[in-house]
Amino acid sequence: MSDMNINASPKHIAEQHRAVAKVWFESLRDRICAEVEALEREAPEDLFPGAPATFTYKPWTRATGTGGGTGGFLSGGRLFEKIGIHTSSANGQLTPAMAKTLPGDGEQLDYVSTSISLIMHPRSPRVPTVHMNTRFLSTAQGWFGGGADLTPMLPEQRTQTAPDTVTFHGAMRAACDAHDPAYYEKFKAWADTYFFLPHRGTARGVGGIFYDHLNSGDFDRDFAFTRDVGSAFLDVYPRIVRARMMEPWTEAERAEQLETRGLYVEFNLLYDKGTMFGLQTGGNIETILSSMPPLVSWG
Fold this sequence. Notes:
Layout: H1 10-42, E1 56-61, E2 66-75, E3 80-93, H2 96-100, E4 110-122, E5 129-138, E6 142-151, H3 163-177, H4 183-194, E7 196-197, E8 202-203, E9 207-214, H5 219-244, H6 251-270, H7 273-280, H8 285-288
Antiparallel strand pairs: 1-2, 2-3, 3-4, 4-5, 5-6, 6-9, 7-8
């Protein structure tokens, strides 16, 4: 962004920043979808019979403000029962109450935003569910936020020393350490706090990293970090899936998976900030609620 016009208005600068981030988020979406479709084809046929699934893309337009996005949906796959991977870009207005909770302390209600968000629900209980999102939003100030977290379905996988946990956190740590040695511990702790269900007294999964309102004063630096988070996710999650998708599972493990998925439903409906933001600002209901698992049970 070194060629940006220093005499441009703050609104114009925000829209330029949004345009650059939007291109990245959409390219990341396309690379992730291609990798998922490759995994669908590679899954062993004895464990995952049937035809591999592909994504369906649905463009949408905001009900309020301007802009919209593209919802990417995969359902009924051999390896993945359901995936939602969505990109959006919008101009709109916050409510005064919502604006007060964001940087700028409510002095500006107009905002511009762009984002990518995904949730993947594998069929096998031995393959962990995963969530990732990154976004850019600007009101009186612009910032990045997002992160990625892993939710293994089985008790023995839901520990900080389990192999998948170590692998996933290792990738997130490397992305953080390339930019600031303090990032990983800070953003891991933030994820541990954020992805916690107080009414259950338990975490949603084994965490990852979560950050919000990241504004160092250097857009390029913060954008580079956000890109590295996305790239780290694209590298690490398929590696975990390729290792786990070769393992058979039992009916008892499937039952455990369906019950663990209930944590996803409860968190996203009760605590998730992205869900609340989307519902309160005229987002697309189908994409917002696509994080819900296709089958779930409560014990």
